[in-house]
Design a protein that fits this description.
Distance between the termini: 39 Å
Order of helices and strands: EHEEEHHEEHEHHH
Radius of gyration: 16 Å
Oligomer: single chain
Shape: globular
Strand content: 15-25%
Amino acid sequence: MLWYSMGIMASYIFVGLGNPGVEYENTRHNTGRIFIEWFGQTHDAEWKHDKKINAEIAKLKIGSNTVTLVNPDTFMNNSGKAVKLLVDSVKKAERLVVIYDDLDLPFGAHKISFNKSSGGHRGLESIIKSIKTEKCARVRIGISPTTPSGKLRKPQGEDVVMKHILGKFKPEEMLQLKKLSKKVSLALETFMSSGLEKAMTEFNQS
């Protein structure tokens, strides 16, 4: 297994957003980090802490592509510090995928998008500012509760939002996310093999 080095760039870079530390494990705000770890498990990833980037890094070979998995060891609001050392051009940004939690989607839903604003997500906003472009793909994973009829019930108010996003997933919710992660993994693989448009067409929910 080859490790990432500053002299060799992977063809694709997949970043999971979250906060480092045991106290944040399995919290809703760490959804991106969780999904990247699961993707790595599927491909027998070997992780290593990169001091220069301040992130957990794993480099994979999937088909004819190389992929660098990145879980920044900075807190969410400073996620861009790690990513900017890996993505220094628009061309590289177009092969970047950021996975993160989204309050605008119900729990269990997901959506792949490209070249959009941060939507108020501070982790993604930090990355966009650091790489100086919005031209990157992202996989949004819904974490908001729903009403009994299935309607989105987005938390309101700063204290309520913070309590929700920093709350831990229940065991049954983790099982649901694990199932969803298989679909997201297929979407990422489709992105590499057939392009972003096909991945969006096949995997985005209506």
